[in-house]
Structures are given as structure tokens and as C-alpha cells.
Write a structure and sequence with these properties.
By secondary structure, this protein is mostly helical. Helix content is about 80%, strand content about 0%.
């Protein structure tokens, strides 16, 4: 009986993206390291790992936010927060931040310098923090 309560207590709107993100990032970094498709030296390996981390973070969280926004926008007003898991008052901010996030990814892909890679890494970290602290409805106890 306790196991059923534990399973029901899991916030899947947080758990699934985190597991997906960790798995994809791990596999992406492993692929880069095993393929050797980076410039030789510490700088080349570091840039390859950061680029892989950035790419995996961007694809995972953009996918999650796009699915949640779709659920939010296609659900009755009374059930939007419950179904999508998004804080209803922050949806405009979510859309704006997602557009800025996508723009940063486009710049990173177009410019592809170490400085832009680091800037995009910082933007990734900020976006993930926003996802967990601002975007999601807090679970009621």
C-alpha cells in the first residue's frame, strides 16, 4: 500500500523531463567522447562536451515546454494548470523566454565560438532553473 502512495506522490511533470534530460545528455556526451569528433586537446574536448550538453538541454526542454504549452492552450480554462502543469499567470513569460532561448540557440549554432558556447551554457542553466522554479505549478501538500 505504501508503494502505491509513493508512486502517486511523484510529480511526473518534473520527473520525466529530468530523466529524459539526464539520459539524452549522458548518451550525447558518451557519443562525442567515443567518436573522437572534436579538436585534440583539453579545449577541444571541453568545447565538444559543452556543445553536446547545450544541444541536449535545448532539444529536451524546448520539447517539454512545447508539449506543455500545447496542453495548456488546448485545455479548458478550469483544468489548464492541472493538465499542463504550467503556472497560468506565467504563460506569456514562458512564451517570451522560450523565444529568447531559441534565438540564443540559433546564434550559438550560427556563430559557434567558445564565448557564444559559454553564453548559451549560462542561458541553458537559467532556462532550466526557470523551468523548475517559475514555470511549473507547485504541488499542493
Amino acid at each position: 500500500m505504501e508503494n502505491d502512495e509513493d508512486v502517486k506522490g511523484i510529480n511526473w511533470l518534473i520527473g520525466i523531463p529530468v530523466v529524459l534530460w539526464i539520459g539524452i545528455t549522458f548518451l550525447g556526451i558518451l557519443k562525442v567522447l567515443l567518436s573522437g569528433s572534436f579538436e585534440p586537446g583539453i579545449k577541444g574536448v571541453t568545447v565538444a562536451i559543452i556543445n553536446t550538453f547545450n544541444s541536449c538541454t535545448f532539444s529536451t526542454f524546448i520539447s517539454v515546454i512545447a508539449c506543455m504549452l500545447y496542453q495548456y492552450l488546448t485545455t479548458d480554462k478550469e483544468k489548464r494548470a492541472e493538465v499542463s502543469g504550467l503556472v497560468m499567470g506565467r504563460v506569456p513569460a514562458i512564451i517570451i523566454l522560450t523565444i529568447v532561448y531559441g534565438g540564443a540557440a540559433i546564434l550559438d549554432a550560427a556563430i559557434n565560438h567558445l564565448i557564444m558556447t559559454i553564453i548559451f551554457l549560462v542561458i541553458n542553466i537559467i532556462y532550466v532553473i526557470c523551468f523548475f522554479k517559475l514555470f511549473l505549478v507547485k504541488k499542493q501538500k
